[in-house]
Amino acid sequence: MAYILQVDFELDGPFGQEMAEEFSDLAKSINEEEGFIWKIWTEDSEAKEAGGIYLFQSKESAQNYLTMHTERLKQFGIEPVNGKIFEVNETLTQINNGPIK
């Protein structure tokens, strides 16, 4: 079963292309996390928020990543970090063409 991890936090920037350039190495490192399948990066420059929606192979790998990522963000001075883990209803998700693999 697949699990979604939803993460968001306040961020003063960067956003857009500047964010893409500055966080490129971070993005590449996420690909190496155990159980990681994909991530959609989220940002709202007006609200000064950022985060992501992740898909993991197991609840354990999602929780492990959330724990590590929360600590990493705290080291950057970003607190609080909001994180939630959800089971994916694969049957309904497939009906709506959701990428679950």
UniProtKB/TrEMBL annotation:
This is Putative mono-oxygenase ydhR. Gene3D superfamilies: 3.30.70.100. It comes from the Bacteria. The lineage of its organism: Bacteria, Bacillati, Bacillota, Bacilli, Bacillales.
